[in-house]
Structures are given as structure tokens and as C-alpha cells.
């Protein structure tokens, strides 16, 4: 642990898919403290939304106590992920950074710095 006493949280990077809930459970059992959701398919905004939003909804419905983070470079995806239940945002580098910052502030979400 650094002298300041700060310790980076353990993050479970969960890529969307069929077993998102069971993969998150396993990661949390292994000591993860945050569930970060990302999409395998980022070919289009709609396809990314079609992966991210149901995954976050499934995690919320499963009742996880750990915070859920969204990792995306697209403002619309970040907005919809927060609406679905994500409370943390790990914005990936991209053209929509300023818009993502506004969305984070609008929803009262928190920005998760790259670790």
C-alpha cells in the first residue's frame, strides 16, 4: 500500500455476453470491488448499446452490491448505461470526451480514472 494509504480498487473487467452475471459473481468472489462493463462489439453505436444496456440491467437485476462502471468512448452509450444502472464511468479516449463529461455531471455519476 502506498504511503498515503490509498489503494486502487480491484476492478472486474466484464465483457458483455451470455454469462455476464456469472462472470461478475466469480470476479467478486475473487476480490473485485467494481464491475466494469465493456462491449466486444463496438462496430456501431446501436450494436454497442444492444450489448451494454442489457448486461448492466442483468447485473442490477441480480442485486450486486458492487458499483457498476461503464467503459465506452461514446456519449450515447455512457448516457444509456447510466440510465440502466451504472454509477461509474471509465471514459475511453475519443472525440466525445467533453460530451461524456457533461453526461457524467448531469446524472451525478462518478468518473473512474484509468488504473
Quick overview of this protein structure:
The chain is an alpha/beta fold.
Overview of this structure, please?
The protein is of the alpha/beta class. The protein has four helices and five strands; from the N terminus they run E-H-E-H-E-H-E-H-E. The protein has helices at residues 20-29, 45-61, 75-84, 97-107, and strands spanning 11-15, 34-38, 68-72, 88-91, 110-111. The chain has a five-stranded parallel sheet, covered by helices on one side. Helix 2 packs parallel to helix 3 and helix 3 packs parallel to helix 4 (97-107). The model has no long low-confidence stretch (mean pLDDT 83).
Features:
115 residues; alpha/beta; 4 helices; 5 strands
Topology diagram in text:
Elements (H helix, E strand, L loop, with lengths): L10 E5 L4 H10 L4 E5 L6 H17 L6 E5 L2 H10 L3 E4 L5 H11 L2 E2 L4
Parallel strand pairs: 1-2, 2-3, 3-4, 4-5
EC number: 2.5.1.15
Keywords: Transferase
InterPro entries: Dihydropteroate_synth-like_sf (IPR011005), Pterin-binding_dom (IPR000489)
Largest sheet: 5 strands, parallel
- Helices and strands, in N-to-C order? EHEHEHEHE
Helix fraction, binned, reads: 40-55%
For the termini, the CA-CA separation is: 15 Å
Could you tell me the strand content as a percent range? Answer: 15-25%
Amino acid at each position: 500500500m502506498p504511503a498515503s494509504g490509498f489503494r486502487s480498487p480491484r476492478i472486474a473487467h466484464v465483457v458483455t455476453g451470455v454469462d455476464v452475471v456469472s462472470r461478475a459473481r466469480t470476479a467478486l468472489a475473487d476480490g473485485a470491488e467494481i464491475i466494469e462493463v465493456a462491449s466486444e462489439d463496438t462496430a456501431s453505436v446501436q450494436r454497442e448499446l444492444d450489448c451494454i444496456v442489457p448486461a448492466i440491467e442483468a447485473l442490477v437485476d441480480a442485486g450486486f452490491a458492487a458499483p457498476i462502471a461503464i467503459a465506452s468512448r461514446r456519449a450515447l452509450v455512457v448516457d444509456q448505461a447510466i440510465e440502466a444502472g451504472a454509477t461509474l464511468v471509465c471514459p475511453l479516449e475519443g472525440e466525445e470526451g467533453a460530451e461524456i463529461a457533461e453526461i457524467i455531471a448531469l446524472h451525478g455519476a462518478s468518473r473512474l480514472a484509468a488504473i
